[in-house]
């Protein structure tokens, strides 16, 4: 795992704003249209608006927990790696994966490079989108969560963090998207 004893950058405004635990309570219900947002894509250097995928393809929103460019959540790090390893599999099914992090642009650029991310990494250092989707927070960072949206932006699946079930597995995400996905061969 890519962690070190270097905690530089950990204690910042984001850390204090997310220090006290707030449970994941997302009130987004299956069948609802999800809120639109725009965030910078650090991987590809563009601004991504969620609504640009509506009418085009399903989307997986993968909210992840990265403390700094050197400190990863032990539950999220393997999930980030697995999503990245299976990214082409999602794309071949006609699905976009948008990973959302609370690290700032500088930290996010290092994460993209160090992990060799292929999928878009959207930077939300203010944690506004994490708050909009009510994924919760604890000990300095928002909690992870996954939301699967169909081509119309309708919520078809959500997984909120718990200590018993940290992140939705790749197998689960593939099972959820298969009925939504357009096969491209």
Automatic annotation (TrEMBL):
Listed InterPro entries: AhpC/TSA, Thioredoxin-like_sf, Thioredoxin_domain, Tpx_Peroxidase_subfamily
Which keywords does the record carry?
A: Antioxidant, Oxidoreductase, Peroxidase, Redox-active center
State any single GO MF term. peroxidase activity
Give the domain of life: Bacteria
Q: Locate the Thioredoxin domain: which residues?
A: 28-182
E.C. number, please? Answer: 1.11.1.15
Q: Name one Pfam family in it.
A: AhpC-TSA
Q: Kind of enzyme, top EC level?
A: oxidoreductase
Name the record gives this protein? Peroxiredoxin Q, chloroplastic
Source organism of the structure: Planktothrix pseudagardhii
Q: Give the taxonomic lineage as stored in the record.
A: Bacteria, Bacillati, Cyanobacteriota, Cyanophyceae, Oscillatoriophycideae
Q: Gene symbol?
A: PRX1
């Amino acid at each position: 795992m890519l962690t070190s004893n270097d905690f530089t950058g950990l204690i910042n405004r984001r850390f204090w704003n997310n220090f006290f635990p707030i449970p994941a309570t997302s009130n987004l219900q299956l069948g609802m249209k999800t809120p639109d947002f725009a965030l910078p894509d650090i991987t590809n250097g563009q601004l991504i608006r969620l609504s640009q995928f509506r009418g085009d393809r399903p989307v997986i929103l993968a909210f992840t927990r990265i403390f700094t460019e050197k400190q990863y959540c032990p539950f999220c790090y393997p999930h980030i790696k697995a999503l990245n390893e299976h990214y082409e599999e999602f794309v071949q099914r006609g699905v976009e994966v948008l990973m959302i992090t609370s690290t700032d642009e500088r930290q996010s650029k290092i994460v993209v490079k160090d992990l060799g991310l292929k999928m878009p990494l959207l930077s939300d250092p203010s944690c506004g989108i994490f708050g909009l989707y009510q994924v919760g927070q604890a000990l300095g960072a928002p909690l992870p969560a996954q939301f699967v949206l169909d081509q119309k932006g309708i919520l078809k699946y959500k997984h909120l963090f718990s200590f018993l079930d940290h992140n939705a597995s790749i197998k689960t995400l593939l099972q959820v998207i298969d009925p939504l996905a357009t096969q491209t061969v």
